[in-house]
Design goal:
The protein has 17 helices and 6 strands. By secondary structure, the protein is α+β, with helices and mostly antiparallel strands. It has 2 domains: 100 residues, no CATH class; 231 residues, Thiolase/Chalcone synthase (Peroxisomal Thiolase, Chain A, domain 1, 3-Layer(aba) Sandwich). Strands 3-6-5-4 form a 4-stranded mixed beta sheet, sandwiched between helices. A hairpin with a 3-residue loop joins strand 5 and strand 6. Helix 10 packs across helix 14 and helix 13 crosses helix 14. The radius of gyration is 38 Å and the shape is globular. The termini are far apart.
């Protein structure tokens, strides 16, 4: 505004027009200084130094370029969302609805239950057919409640072809053997105290083994008072998990004689492979019923001829089941056979796992067969600890399964004898 000039009404109300024009020009030159607070914050996070140097439309162009650079990430997100929507539409068209795999797995794994026992413990008078009927009913219920678990629930609910006892709910090893123990207790009156005697015998032998993991002698009360893992199995009913290894040398008789040590020869053997049989199987009959029978037939021996037995012992119930299947006692009598020290060397009817076995000595992650053969050879050679050495031991057995009983497993039995 020039000095002495007459101001207009507009200049009086808003200041002079020349002052307003100059202010707008200065604002345009300042650029980012006239932007709102929100725009300033955005510019600070994306190309802020350059945005402060330019003003007005130039700043808008900078923001547009930044948005275009971020656009590929947004496009990928949109593609993923569209893909998920298409999957859900197809799922609804097929009569099922997908859900995240982790969520389905968490729902099905709760408790580690087995489908053949969905309503609680076995009822009196239950037959395998009745158990399977309840299993199929539970499978169909699971398929209706959790239809997004894909093939596992759908296959388990088809009907007669039940794909394993644990398919709809998932399974755990301890849960499987706990159900076998429940069934044995229901059918034959076996007690937890009788199961505990298996652990007691193993601990009485392991105290003499300097390499055993557990050298403490346990009592029946110790086993029963240990924490429950899967009813009715307590923690001390379960084997230890350790590192370990072993090796055997098999050679010709003439070479073995030159070693000037007691010779051990293979007298007989048997083996079998057993599947889960689509869930329709006898849960109290292990593969030892076949491998043991074949081994005794090939050797021309009977269970009474065996002076020492190495029997796989991942759980106490598994020892009882194999003793019955191998013929050392009648079916259903395994609990009474092991009670009161029936497996203790020098005391019981059948010296068993004198190194402490898998329950106390070692159990290298499901590989306990090698140590069973090694301890049997020590007994035949007279090289076991003096406190557990079986007198005049001339026939010994080593036996055990592979994989998981109830899901599908193999079983082998080996009979050995000491020769001159």
């Amino acid at each position: 505004m020039r000095i002495g000039a007459r101001p207009s009404r507009r200049s009086a109300s808003n200041g002079s027009s020349s002052c307003a024009t100059a202010a707008r020009r200065r604002s345009s030159d300042a650029g980012a200084t006239t932007l709102s607070g929100l725009h300033r914050r955005r510019l600070r996070t994306s190309h802020a130094p350059r945005a402060r140097q330019v003003g007005g439309a130039a700043a808008c162009r900078v923001r547009a370029r930044c948005a275009r650079r971020r656009r590929p990430g947004l496009r990928r997100c949109r593609r993923l969302l569209l893909r998920r929507r298409r999957t859900r539409r197809r799922s609804r068209a097929d009569g099922r609805l997908h859900e995240p795999q982790g969520a389905a797995r968490r729902r099905h794994r709760i408790g580690g239950l087995l489908v053949h026992q969905p309503r609680g413990p076995c009822r009196a008078g239950d037959r395998p057919g009745a158990l399977l009927g309840r299993a199929r009913h539970a499978g169909r219920q699971a398929a209706q409640r959790w239809p997004g678990d894909g093939h596992r629930v759908a296959r388990a609910a088809r009907g007669p072809a039940l794909v394993g006892l644990g398919e709809p709910y998932g399974w755990t090893v301890s849960g499987i053997y706990a159900n076998f123990a429940c069934r044995h207790m229901h059918e034959h009156g076996t007690t937890s105290e009788q199961l505990a005697w298996v652990k007691v015998a193993a601990s009485m032998h392991a105290q003499h083994n300097p390499h055993a993991l557990l050298r403490k002698v346990f009592t029946v009360e110790d086993v029963l008072n240990s924490p429950m893992v899967a009813d009715p199995l307590h923690r001390l009913d379960c084997c230890v998990i350790t590192d370990g290894g072993g090796a055997l040398v098999v050679t010709r008789p003439e070479i073995a004689r030159s070693l000037r040590r007691p010779m051990v020869a293979v007298r007989g053997f048997g083996e079998t492979v057993r599947t889960g049989e689509a869930g329709d199987f006898d849960m109290l009959r292990t593969g030892a019923a076949i491998s043991g029978r074949d081994a005794f037939e090939s050797a021309g021996l009977t269970p009474r001829d065996v002076k020492y037995a190495s029997i796989y012992d991942n759980f106490t119930i598994m020892v009882i089941l194999q003793l019955e299947d191998l013929g050392f006692c009648a079916r259903g009598e395994g609990g009474r056979f092991v009670a009161d020290g029936g497996l203790v060397s020098g005391v019981g009817r059948l010296p068993w796992n004198t190194d402490g076995g898998g329950l106390c000595n070692n159990h290298p992650q499901n590989r306990g067969g090698m140590t069973k053969v090694i301890e049997a050879m020590r007994q035949l050679r007279g090289e076991a600890h003096a406190a557990v050495q079986v007198p005049n031991c001339d026939i010994a057995m080593a036996t055990g399964p592979g994989m998981v009983f109830g899901i599908g497993h193999s079983h082998a039995t080996l009979l050995m004898e000491r020769t001159s």
